[in-house]
Amino acid sequence: MLTALTQTADFIKSKTGFTPDVGIILGSGLGGLVAKMQIEHTLPYSELPNFPVSTVAGHGSRLIMGTLGNTKVVVMQGRFHFYEGYTFEQLTFPVRVLKFLGIKKLFLSNAAGGMNTNFKVGDLMVIDDHINLMPGNPLIGKNIDELGPRFPDMSAPYDIDLQNQALQIAAKKGYRCHTGVYAAVSGPTYETRAEYKFLRTIGADAVGMSTVPEVMVARHMDLPCFAMSIITDLGGMELVETITHEEVLKVAAEAEVKMTAIVMQMLA
């Protein structure tokens, strides 16, 4: 692991000479944030040693470096998922690479199904906690002490100061933005009515197929995390909805301008 991480990070540094302060991982339909960047370097994942390649529609497959909101950032335009067939170690490998590149904070975004009755399609949710229902954990196996402790604390996986900052910005802009608990499942199927009911019962406000493994690895390395969901559909309500990936991408793209505005002001 350490050899592979060093090899990948050194390759990126040799190509760019760029040291980012913040890492950003963009989810389904949320790749447009890069249009606001002053881009200095773009590297396709396929050119990076040891790096996976995204296989999902709505996800780019590029590492982009530049300035956003006066901050030097490295953006993953496209992430990796357990349902694509990657191991947890593989899908979280890029997070560790970002740490090796020098980032001091990690921002994450995703498209999620909302289950809180106060939510509407197109709302934003700042994640303040999560429930891991994926069949595994990226920290299983021999611990690498150089990366982090054997038993990392997860009592507060999402940075409270960054949460409060985002909520204040959203309120000033008049955006519908909530805080909530994100449940991570393996996918790739969307949830049944009974599964939605189960998730609501155990305390989840939204559900998705990403983010949590990445946050686990980031916290293992003592990286502060901020994560935001765009609520692209509603599940578990009395009215049953049929959900398609195309509709998820459409809603995410429409709401992305709000999320982008919040992130840019946070970085500024």
SSE blueprint:
Blueprint: H1 2-16, E1 22-26, E2 38-44, E3 62-68, E4 71-77, H2 88-101, E5 105-114, E6 124-132, H3 160-173, E7 177-184, H4 193-201, E8 206-208, H5 212-220, E9 225-234, H6 245-267
Parallel strand pairs: 1-4, 1-5, 5-9, 6-7, 7-8
Antiparallel strand pairs: 2-3, 3-4, 5-8, 6-9
Helix pairs in contact: 1-2, 2-5, 3-6
What does this entry show, briefly?
With 268 residues, this protein is of the alpha/beta class.
Describe the fold and architecture.
- This protein is of the alpha/beta class and 268 residues long.
- It has one domain (2-267): Nucleoside phosphorylase domain (Rossmann fold), CATH 3.40.50.1580.
- It is built from six helices and nine strands; from the N terminus they run αββββαββαβαβαβα.
- It has helices at residues 2-16, 88-101, 160-173, 193-201, 212-220, 245-267, and strands at 22-26, 38-44, 62-68, 71-77, 105-114, 124-132, 177-184, 206-208, 225-234.
- The protein has a five-stranded mixed β-barrel.
- β3 and β4 form a beta hairpin.
- α1 (2-16) packs across α2.
- The longest helix has 23 residues, at 245-267.
- The chain starts with a helix and ends with a helix.
- 44% of the residues are buried.
